[in-house]
Amino acid sequence: MITVLKPNTTEEQRMQLIHWFEEQGVTVHESQGETYTVLGLIGNTSNIDAEMLELLDIVEKVTKISEPFKSANRHFHPEDTVVDVNGVKIGGGNFTVIAGPCSVENPSQIREVAEGVKAAGAGMLRGGAFKPRTSPYDFQGMKAEGIELLLEAKKHTGLPIVTEIMNANHLPLFEDVDVIQVGARNMQNFELLKELGKTKKTILLKRGLANTIKELLMSAEYIMAGGNENVILCERGIRTFETYTRNTLDLSAVPVLHSLTHLPVVIDPSHATGHADLVEPMALAAAACGADGLMIEVHNNPAKALCDGAQSLTPAEFAALMNKVNKIREVI
After folding, report:
1. β pairing state of 96-100 and 293-297
2. Tell me, what's the pLDDT at 137?
């Protein structure tokens, strides 16, 4: 249930109503707009009489929300959320590109890629330290050492870093990481999501391989219910019967998510397609359909990459892509 207050509501009146709601056993999520204040009620609202509320002088309207996701719901928070990562903003008209290698391999590799993507206009540096691989015999990442190399690249370039977490027990290693990524395989690792909800870190939440948009939003709700509202959603393709691409990129998820939630939405065309030559057209399409950002895999030598080289761009290719993305952004 949401209660919209009239513009002339005083601070005292607002606080009295919030206090009354809390006495009814519900949690109040407050969203301040330019004109109206929206109070989102989370919990059992069966004892709250909507018709009685609408009779109050300070109440504009009362609406019951049928969707199970509350904190992530645009009805609770009508204006777009802008996530600020060390001065780099995403959402609410702010477009950010996150770029870097699938996995951190050595000091020279991550530093060279970091310098390249920054020069081309990337706002954040991505790199995998812990790698979830289908085969137990594939490269699993450099783990703690990989995070240290990312932090060194951050010191050198100033780019905030994004890297994936696999286990809540690893959280102490992520203390200096700017954005914690939850990969597709962990989208419904609810115990991990609960722990991330207790932090104030920005969380980049990827859609699962075979999960619905509603399930993605419910996973975001797990994080937000813990008190952490710094969430970025990422569409990275879903598994279908098609085999010519690694996954099927669901670009329709962008406008659908924007209608349902206030959270920013980014697109990962690298994992979606699995082919470097398909990254550019899908990245341009993502920018055109209103995505708040992109996540692109970039490697200084894709042919020798230890992970996902086939879908990685070179720094030069990434720079060319950024020029085209910027032109699309100017048009829209």
Report:
1. parallel
2. 66
